[in-house]
């Protein structure tokens, strides 16, 4: 392999390794890491494991998503025996059906459903950090930096396409690559994010960016002391699994929702004031008026943004961060959407002498495309290369019904004889009736998962290489009626976790990170709840499913209902945010199945598995499309 080509392979692997942990390398950090790896003479077969060790050490020590050279140097210096592990020969594993077709063609000892992947079973502990001296390494790096800039054009030549300073501060490669660069284990590109593990971000209006907020729900005294002492690591890992929050978090929850939507509105071109006003009318853009600025301006029309709230006398008001004003909606016209209490809306109307707003129009805030919020070009290319990757989505898997297992057996047999899905997403409820805490139903509930584990284990390839992701539903134990719901307790799922290698029990809601795509999964009968709590009648000329999706995406929240109707944990309300807009949104509802796109988000509902004649949904991330599937009925 030529020197220029080797550099391209190393840089591409660095990008992938850091992207898997949602980390962004600055340009100087990228150059530093490239030169360090070259100076250490890392063998190509050990490159992937070496980078995984470095990334693990960085996450354990720093945790910041933007990786600078200074922080990377600190991590490398503090990783004990780091240079020893650079040359450590890892143990390899084989036989993975999700490997790329190109890598498969290099092997003659495996069938098409048994593709190679590499996995290191021996890695250094990232928590074991001590200082070592790398002064000699730094000297060599400084020499190489000058040599690289002087000879870069001669090294790469005119036929290699190379572009630096991409949108996220990393490098983007195009053109032909070596076989090693295409050797990607696609299963490592899938990560399930539990609702209680999601970091909390808040909008800082003074610096116009999001900053990570420290959790005030932590009761660990060691974490609290570390945070008071300014520990970065404690500040970024202090999120704890507390369903209940402190009193101030209830107010902070609604304030955070408000600021997330407000900053999105103000970036919209319709609300942006003109930079140059010469010869331009000032009414060419939409201007938001804070509620506190209404005083003394009776008879004027205003456009306002805030949250719909109901007062003690039954009247509705609009509330923003500073004030509140009563609304009269007798003759209002509303756009598509389902408007309930605690829903954030744009209101246009006239302010009267009685200090009320005569509402003329009410609507949802404008959405923002995901590509405008976030871009990950490198991982997008990887996702598009694997056109046969699919996710099978089922909802209401009633394990107390014999017909459920008979139908699942037929489905598993079909997929085991064709292309295996990367993941089976199984949403609850896993019981046809609500779980009763009387001590008698625990054994029956556990037996249902044991039977499912035995069924999956009858298909060894599927049980080994496909992910099985379980999301609890309304009838499942634990979590009561508070969102987000924690995962199903381990007591009930021990056997399936032992027999199914890649079984993951997550919260409701949860998220899947696959390459550059974010897939949000929410199991809730949300449509009927919203319809029962609408303040104004829904717009009649839009399909009700599309109004549901528009309400959730435009409002940037999975459950825009009052807390009296659907309780939400104050401390974990950020886990229900839908911002940025995901690539796919799975609203597992007992309503009939549907699938369509809204704002480049593929929205789908698989429907209830037993009540929809045992139909399910299949999602293809490469093309961002889905199909409604059903077992063919026998011909009589």
From TrEMBL:
<dbReference type="InterPro" id="IPR016266">
    <property type="entry name" value="POLE2"/>
</dbReference>
<comment type="similarity">
    <text>Belongs to the DNA polymerase epsilon subunit B family.</text>
</comment>
<dbReference type="GO" id="GO:0008622">
    <property type="term" value="C:epsilon DNA polymerase complex"/>
</dbReference>
<dbReference type="InterPro" id="IPR007185">
    <property type="entry name" value="DNA_pol_a/d/e_bsu"/>
</dbReference>
<keyword id="KW-0539">Nucleus</keyword>
<keyword id="KW-0808">Transferase</keyword>
<keyword id="KW-0548">Nucleotidyltransferase</keyword>
<feature type="compositionally biased region" description="Polar residues">
    <location>
        <begin position="102"/>
        <end position="124"/>
    </location>
</feature>
<dbReference type="GO" id="GO:0042276">
    <property type="term" value="P:error-prone translesion synthesis"/>
</dbReference>
<keyword id="KW-0238">DNA-binding</keyword>
<dbReference type="GO" id="GO:0006261">
    <property type="term" value="P:DNA-templated DNA replication"/>
</dbReference>
<feature type="region of interest" description="Disordered">
    <location>
        <begin position="86"/>
        <end position="132"/>
    </location>
</feature>
<dbReference type="Pfam" id="PF04042">
    <property type="entry name" value="DNA_pol_E_B"/>
</dbReference>
<feature type="compositionally biased region" description="Basic and acidic residues">
    <location>
        <begin position="88"/>
        <end position="99"/>
    </location>
</feature>
<dbReference type="GO" id="GO:0003887">
    <property type="term" value="F:DNA-directed DNA polymerase activity"/>
</dbReference>
<feature type="domain" description="DNA polymerase alpha/delta/epsilon subunit B">
    <location>
        <begin position="391"/>
        <end position="593"/>
    </location>
</feature>
<keyword id="KW-0239">DNA-directed DNA polymerase</keyword>
<keyword id="KW-0235">DNA replication</keyword>
<feature type="compositionally biased region" description="Polar residues">
    <location>
        <begin position="213"/>
        <end position="243"/>
    </location>
</feature>
<dbReference type="GO" id="GO:0003677">
    <property type="term" value="F:DNA binding"/>
</dbReference>
<protein>
    <recommendedName>
        <fullName>DNA polymerase epsilon subunit B</fullName>
    </recommendedName>
</protein>
<feature type="region of interest" description="Disordered">
    <location>
        <begin position="213"/>
        <end position="244"/>
    </location>
</feature>
